[in-house]
Task: inverse folding
């Protein structure tokens, strides 16, 4: 009998303890679910939802990036460089909280936002605001960056997985040239009608290549030189044309202090490409060696091996810097297209 009573009492105690445990867990879960974590959710789960990025700095510089059809545009005027927008979207989608800064640091953090904060606003295709926050300073060692969601008072130190360093620099731009696509030539082989390359200091190497669906024609630009009667190497012409598929400059130099002086020099090459729609793009190349060393005057298309870069004067108004490593692929001579 005593055994039976003990069993009953033990069962009742277990039931009561179970009920208490369930109540505590349930209460904790309910209270946890009510915690507002919107102030730390800086990442956009699906970056493809982003169609507009507005960045405003304290110094008054403002940048608008907007997706239009297949391209991202900056200031509604220029195509954004694919690497720039790719890195930006990776960042906006990958932001992760590293830690909550101590309360003792909040006063200095908020002062930094007031002085150097960068405002970021993200919109979807319907122009609905997705996120709005400020990017502040960096932590000691630049291993984290402080963010603050608009409408909230709690700052967070954020990071990007697999990246060490400040994220602040990803939002800083001195001018739109830092964001623009740097493509000089990008032609499919069958979209080129004419290519003319004039070497002002090496006329014998200058030529014009004309393409039609059936054959190639190559003419010397030097009036004293007869058209070569040798057979044109079709494979060589095709290899030459493929070199125009993806030619990018290294950087824009639109604000270079010597731009006007450089443009007044005799270029090493003048290149003109006409596409099948009749649109013509022209550039002039100036070796950096010729600009900064008055004792050097690169004359031949057989480029001085010390030439590493060119200034590029573009017919569409840009002034750029390019590498010989890339542009050397299109600096062919007239004789190179013919059988020996």
Result:
């Amino acid at each position: 009998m005593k055994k039976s009573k003990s069993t009953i009492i033990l069962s009742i105690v277990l039931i009561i303890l179970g009920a208490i445990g369930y109540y505590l867990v349930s209460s904790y879960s309910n209270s946890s679910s009510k915690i507002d974590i919107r102030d730390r959710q800086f990442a956009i789960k699906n970056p493809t939802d982003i169609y507009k990025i507005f960045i405003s700095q304290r110094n008054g510089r403002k940048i608008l990036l907007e997706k239009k059809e297949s391209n991202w545009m900056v200031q509604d005027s220029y195509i954004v460089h694919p690497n720039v927008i790719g890195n930006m979207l990776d960042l906006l989608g990958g932001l992760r909280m590293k830690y909550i800064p101590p309360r003792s640091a909040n006063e200095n953090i908020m002062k930094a936002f007031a002085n150097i904060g960068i405002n970021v606003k993200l919109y979807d295709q319907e122009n609905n605001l997705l996120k709005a926050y400020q990017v502040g300073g960096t932590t000691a060692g630049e291993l984290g960056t402080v963010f603050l969601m608009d409408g909230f008072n709690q700052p967070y130190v954020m990071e990007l997985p697999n990246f060490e360093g400040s994220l602040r620099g990803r939002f800083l731009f001195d001018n739109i040239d830092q964001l623009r696509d740097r493509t000089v030539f990008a032609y499919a082989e069958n979209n080129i009608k004419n290519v003319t390359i004039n070497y002002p200091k090496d006329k014998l190497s200058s030529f014009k290549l004309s393409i039609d669906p059936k054959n190639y024609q190559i003419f010397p630009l030097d009036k004293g030189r007869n058209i070569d009667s040798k057979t044109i190497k079709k494979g060589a012409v095709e290899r030459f044309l493929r070199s125009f598929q993806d030619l990018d400059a290294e950087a824009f130099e639109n604000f270079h202090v010597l731009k006007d002086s450089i443009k007044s020099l005799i270029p090493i090459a003048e290149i003109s490409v006409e596409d099948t729609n009749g649109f013509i793009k022209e550039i002039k190349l100036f070796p950096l060696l010729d600009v900064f060393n008055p004792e050097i005057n690169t004359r031949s298309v057989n480029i001085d091996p010390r030439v590493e870069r060119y200034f590029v004067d573009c017919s569409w108004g840009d002034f750029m810097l390019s590498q010989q490593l890339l542009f050397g692929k299109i600096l062919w001579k007239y004789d190179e297209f013919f059988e020996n």
Notes: Residues 183-337 form one domain.
